[in-house]
Amino acid sequence: MANATTIEIEDMITVGTLAEKLMLPVGKVIGELMKNGVMATVNERIDFDTAQIIVGELGLDVELKRKEAAAPITTTRDKNSISDKAVGRPPVIAVMGHVDHGKTSLLDRIRGANVVKGEAGGITQHISAYQIEHNGRKITFLDTPGHEAFAAIREHGALLTDIVIIVVAADDGVKPQTIEAIRFARKAGVRIVVAMNKMDKEGANPDRVKQELAEQDLLIEEWGGDIVVVPVSAKTGEGVPALLDMLLLVSDVEELKAEVDVPARGLIIEAHIEQGRGPVAHALVESGTVKRGDFIVAGGTYAKIRNLESTDGKTIKEATPSTPVVITGFKELPEFGDEFAVVANEKAARAEASATATGKKNAGGRLDMNSTELIRMINRNNKVEEFNIIIKADVQGSLTSVMDSLKALDTDEVAVRVVGSGVGTITENDAHMAHTSNAVIYGFNVVLPSNIKQHASRDKVSIRLYKVIYELIDDVREELTKRLAPEIIETDLGRLVVRGIFKTTKTEVICGGEVTKGKLVAPALARVMRDGEKIADVEVTGLKRGPNDAKEIFESEMCGMSIKTSGRVELQEGDHIELFTREMVQRSL
Ligand code: GDP
Fold this sequence. Notes:
Elements: E1 5-9, E2 12-14, H1 15-22, H2 26-35, E3 45-47, H3 48-57, E4 62-66, H4 72-77, E5 87-88, E6 92-97, H5 103-111, E7 128-134, E8 137-143, H6 151-160, E9 163-169, H7 176-188, E10 191-197, H8 206-215, E11 228-231, H9 240-254, E12 257-258, E13 265-274, E14 278-287, E15 290-291, E16 295-298, E17 301-310, E18 318-319, E19 324-330, E20 339-343, H10 346-367, H11 371-378, E21 385-393, H12 396-407, E22 414-423, H13 428-437, E23 440-444, H14 450-458, E24 463-466, H15 469-483, E25 487-504, E26 508-518, E27 520-521, E28 524-530, E29 533-545, E30 548-550, E31 552-553, E32 558-564, E33 576-585
Parallel strand pairs: 1-4, 6-8, 6-9, 9-10, 10-11, 21-22, 21-23, 23-24
Antiparallel strand pairs: 2-3, 5-12, 7-8, 13-14, 13-20, 14-19, 15-18, 16-17, 16-20, 17-19, 25-26, 25-33, 26-32, 27-31, 28-29, 28-33, 29-30, 29-32
Bound molecules: guanosine-5'-diphosphate (GDP).
Guanosine-5'-diphosphate binds next to helix 5.
């Protein structure tokens, strides 16, 4: 393809942007994706390989080239860009694995706390981080959530991470989310250490786990590979120090370094509003040193750092690379996943923040066409049933996760339309908006002030509060299911050939004939057919065998039939009457 146009795209690209770059209607790209079994809407991201397949299938004279990702997160990780002045830094560890395999218990055991019991549904709801000291050295842990609804967050988590601990319960083995975690870790190019948990349990079967890991191409050290497997019990604490030793060892091999002589940069890993403190952001420092009083820009907002704290609430003066910190002083709430940077002064902070905010808005304007609208564009004739909702969540991370999970529910018939969303308690404004847009308000880990409750019940606004994300998603799914048009199933019963007509009025025909196929029952729906063409839709109201009413008439029997018609139907001998039933079946998503 010597003349092919070359288009550079990043590793991941939204369907909308790809269509734009290919100068194709977005519906065409979506259609092609669907043909290939990928159900993606305009805002969803597909990877480079998928994009390449689509371009191939569309027969375009276009060559895709992978653009180097411009994300500073990766550049700070790039070993080649590290100067001589860079110093060693603690490793950043994420814990991943299948639900119930003990991620939370292990993180709590390492932290020396025990908060697992207080958690709704046993699922960690948002991302934060903490740092511990082991053998006089620091290790940073990302407190990554455990449920698959948090796939989005976990992907971000993997980007921040040097080592992923994959927790596998020794009595349960490798499960779907274990495999997913392995995939994330590989994609992010981070080292994997396996914690084989629940070794205290009777059913623990380490050999089976090792075998199953090998099936995922994770070859453990004792079998000649480079994957370390540490048997642990989060319950008894057995093996945990060995796991920490191993993390330090692996990070020594990786020679983790960061620049310190540069303006500080990093990533926002959680943000929420606290009463009396305003926006509170948790951030992970990647390079440089963050100090109290610094001007810091994150996304479209900035702060003069009022308070700098460690994630366990202690005031600190400064934070060096790999340190998780809590920052207050932001004008507005930054977003989870926003990069932050320390700048020289307030003027620079304000300018940069407003530039980013405008950029975001523009990007949003281009890509923000919601999936519902798009689906409507594709099937102009088919009306999409919409379910309007407003979502309020406690922290930005949860909100992002809820929104991401909801997107996956849309089909070409029904769709969730988020008419409003935000972080914080449910307000009167939300209730008002719900009332005018006929929306249901979903609150995730937020409280409902009693005056708002009254206001909402007066306006008949439904407010539903959840503490477990998948229960919220299930509720929305149920609502969407209700909006799916039921499937109509017609079942053929039998056929009568007309041998005589006894009475015809505007609304009724009485005739007689022979059953030539199947079985007749009454009441039933029927089609009157003449020479293979339908001449009327009717209802069979009664059947007679001789002089007696009958419920059923079988093949090759003769019978009389009463028919209800809408309008006069002039039946003729030789017409066929085909009886059938029609059932409405509620479909599910
Ligand atoms: P997560 O979903 O991966 O975060 O799992 P959790 O930490 O919530 O643990 C799930 C269940 O397994 C809880 O009932 C824990 O008490 C239990 N559990 C976790 N680790 C161990 C362990 O090492 N031994 C035993 N016996 N139970 C464990």
